[in-house]
Specification:
Elements (H helix, E strand, L loop, with lengths): L24 E4 L3 H8 L3 E6 L4 H5 L6 E5 L6 H10 L2 E6 L6 E7 L5 E5 L3 H8 L5 H9 L10 H9 L17 H4 L5 H13 L3 H17 L7 H17 L3 H14 L4 H11 L20 E3 L13 E3 H6 L6 E12 L1 H16 L4 E13 L2 H13 L4 E5 L4 H6 L6 E5 L5 E3 L7 H13 L11
Parallel strand pairs: 9-10, 10-11
Antiparallel strand pairs: 1-5, 2-3, 2-6, 3-4, 4-5, 7-8, 9-12, 12-13
């Protein structure tokens, strides 16, 4: 990577290749009071992916991202920094006593962040200016302590405006779960149920879990994301465990693990219920040869995505890969798109724009026309294409590819190298699949420096 923060086209360079003027993380003077003041609008780092720029620069879990180019790290500021390279980023360590500055480097990709769970975040929840995915990330990364403090702002959110679901009588919930379900607020109700369970208030947790499920039924949302299914079952398990129903708790946690086998918090709780040590399993197909081949037409079954006519061959695409380039195969089954496909391609487009030369092509294979939240899909696809993501939509009318893979959920993701080796199947929206693919590629070629570990 050059000193302006961009990846060199002739391949990655090792840390030893960098001169003293290269980007570095350095301590800076910033007193604890200033760090605390900046933290209220900061981002909390929940995870740092291996083989990523963030890992290379020494960013650590539980650090706080305080400022980007002197500004609070809101979405627009972060996106601009990711696109332009060479940003100045200030972090505070987990103690809140020491600040560090990174200047002139590519954005420290490879971090999973959420808003710092302080008063500013509570206000954003109440005002409906929050992303439920942010709140889900605390649970996914096993950081449950903020959830009890979300109870009040979540209830205020549900009471706002015309919803009128609560009358805010202290110690009482005057609306029945069935009444609450008249408004399709099931994602927020699920978070509220988890928050109460984490706080140890199991009657309230059960009440809102019932409301969550009733709300989904009223909204005809019989099929919902594996993450949401896993969180529901996880919360049910906490409730059952607290009331001494061990078998129900075990069954619910097994369902949570089946829906999301890669979430460490779920595996940790399941292992405790089963009386064993936690053991994260490697997802199916990892480091195996991709078991399917295909020749499919470039066709959008709903006719929105305009593409050149013609067939796309998996074997020919793989043969055209050069160097460290990868192919991503997204298998959508009967979906034209779903929520996580939308988020995956947008995040991959950002990575591909900032760190070019890693992804040669993206094959999104669909067998149907069902598209959850068409407006969201259109916005994400438009942004991904504008950023230059080499996305091709392939129509598998007989659903042969999905039928041979038996995926646990959609989209099923497969990062493939030239030899059709599956390097990663994990989600991309939080960059995990992307960086695991780079790390596993390096493991297959130990002499290579993991892409993205340079600056």
């Amino acid at each position: 990577m050059s000193q302006d923060g961009h990846m060199r086209q002739d391949g990655p360079m090792s840390q030893d290749d960098q001169g003293p003027a290269g980007p570095q993380m350095v301590p800076i003077d910033m007193d604890a009071a200033a760090i605390e003041a900046a933290s209220d609008r900061a981002l909390l780092i929940l995870k740092v992916h291996p083989a990523s720029p963030a890992a290379h620069f020494g960013v650590q879990k539980s650090w706080r991202l305080l400022t980007v180019n002197g500004r609070a790290p809101d979405d627009a500021t972060v996106f601009k920094a990711q696109m332009q390279g060479g940003a100045t980023v200030v972090f505070a360590d987990a103690t809140g006593q020491q600040a560090h500055q990174l200047s002139g480097a590519v954005w420290p990709f490879g971090i999973v962040t959420v808003p710092w769970p302080g008063s500013a975040y509570a206000r954003s929840i109440e005002k409906a200016q929050f992303d439920r995915e942010d709140m889900t990330r605390f649970w996914k990364e096993g950081v449950l302590s903020p959830y009890p403090q979300f109870i009040d702002p979540l209830e205020r959110y549900l009471s706002r405006g015309t919803l009128g679901l609560f009358e805010r009588l202290k110690g009482q919930r005057v609306s029945s779960p069935d009444m609450i379900a008249s408004v399709a607020e099931y994602p927020v109700l699920a978070l509220l149920s988890l928050s109460y369970a984490t706080a140890g208030q199991m009657d309230a947790a059960a009440y809102y879990l019932d409301a969550t499920r009733a709300s989904r039924q009223r909204a005809a949302q019989a099929s919902y994301s594996s993450i949401d299914m896993s969180m529901d079952a996880y919360t049910e398990s906490l409730i059952a465990e607290a009331t001494g129903e061990h078998e129900r708790a075990l069954d619910a946690m097994r369902r949570a693990a089946q829906s999301s086998p890669d979430i460490e918090e779920v595996e940790r709780r399941l292992a405790a219920l089963e009386g064993r040590a936690p053991a994260m399993s490697v997802p199916r197909y990892t480091l195996e040869r991709f078991p399917v081949t295909y020749d499919l037409p470039r066709t959008d079954p709903i006719g929105e995505l305009k593409q050149p006519d013609g067939m796309v061959s998996l074997s020919e695409t793989l043969a055209a890969l050069e160097g460290d380039e990868l192919l991503l195969v997204l298998v959508l089954g009967d979906y034209r798109s779903n929520y996580y496909y939308n988020l995956d391609i947008l995040r991959l487009a950002i990575l591909n724009k900032a760190l070019p030369g890693m992804v040669k092509a993206v094959h999104a294979i669909t067998a149907g026309t069902y598209a959850l939240d068409a407006n969201h899909r259109r916005a994400c696809e438009a942004e991904a294409l504008s950023l230059g993501l080499p996305l091709e939509l392939l129509y598998d009318e007989a659903d042969r590819v999905s039928g041979q893979l038996f995926p646990d959920g959609y989209p099923a993701r497969f990062f493939l190298d030239r030899d059709a080796t599956v390097l990663a199947t994990e989600r991309i929206m939080e960059e995990e699949g992307f960086w695991l693919a780079q790390a596993r590629r390096a493991e297959l070629a130990p002499s290579a420096t993991p892409t993205g570990s340079t600056s």
